[in-house]
Specification:
This protein folds into 2 domains: 152 residues, Rossmann fold; 172 residues, Dihydrodipicolinate Reductase, domain 2 (2-Layer Sandwich). 39% of the residues lie in helices and 25% in strands. It has 14 helices and 16 strands. Helix 2 links the parallel strand 2 and strand 3. Helix 3 runs parallel beside helix 4, helix 4 packs across helix 8 and helix 7 runs antiparallel to helix 11. The longest helix is centred in the last third of the chain and has 17 residues. It starts with a strand and ends with a strand.
Length: 351
Amino acid sequence: MKNRLLIYGCNGYTGKLITEIAVKNGLNPVLSGRNEEAVKNLANALKCEYRTFDLSGDFSSQLSDIKTVLHCAGPFMYTATAMAKTCIATNTHYLDITGEISVFETLKRLDEKAKAANVTVMPGVGFDVVPTDCLSLYLKEQLPDATSLELCLMNKGCMLSHGTTITVIENLGEGSAIRSNGKIVNTKSGSHTREIDYGTTKKLAVEIPWGDVSTAHFTTGIPNIRVYNVLPMSLIKNMKRSNYLGFILKQRWVKDYLIKKVKQRPAGPDEQMRKEAQSFIWGEVKNDKGETKRATLTLPEGYLLTALTAVKIAGETLKESYSSAGYKTPASVFGADFILQFEGTKRNNLA
């Protein structure tokens, strides 16, 4: 009987955090990845079964007794499709923690095959995109005829992990993206800014290619979507400059050099930083009459929240009562209030 969870990429920064919380929550995961020594050491420390394999060949036999795969090995532009297709072939639910628009759009095309196999394909079960997806649906429910959605992220006291930073590097030179009249449109990096009023503070934010450009459209049907991030003006200026350096930034040797530098830094925020940091999300919907609804979410630190939401969703898919099939987004299955169950989370309506 297929009733087990496999965490692939368990030895990465976020994968390890997810694994530790999964074990603490009694999910008894099978640990997996490509690096046998690292996977084995973590499995022995946590008293878990482990399997090592890469995604370049046929690894379907590794999933024969697995009900759900929680895929944590990015950049997902290189790894998600192979894992998702094998999950469908083996009647295994697929979850991942990506935030990459291209990955969401690619996996969305597996919907019919996933339905035929009676399995879920649900990318983005971490900070990308659970809280923003839930807030998007909440706002849509407040203004059902909304035709535009804007979201903004703000972080306080945290830093990026190796994996997140490497994903950013892999996308250098690609610009940003929005959804306009139902279609994803590429835009210049740093080209659009907006002052965001969080209720207690106002911050300048810049448009970014966040996953909700894909997922929020699936969840809400809203045809016009932009996502912003509160960043220092110096970084916004660098984003604008990158539009003129796209050819150089896309070069493999440039990316490899930057990735090498990243790996010389700490792997991600330490336990104390995760405990003290906070994340904030602002959202606004508007209809053609000019009516608006706004709300915010106050959240724990992003990597901690990723681990909490990913493990919770994985646990739900392991239940006998779980029956959702096809391509899904978190809020489309679990609802707008799903995010509110996590400690340190609060939703606030704005005037």
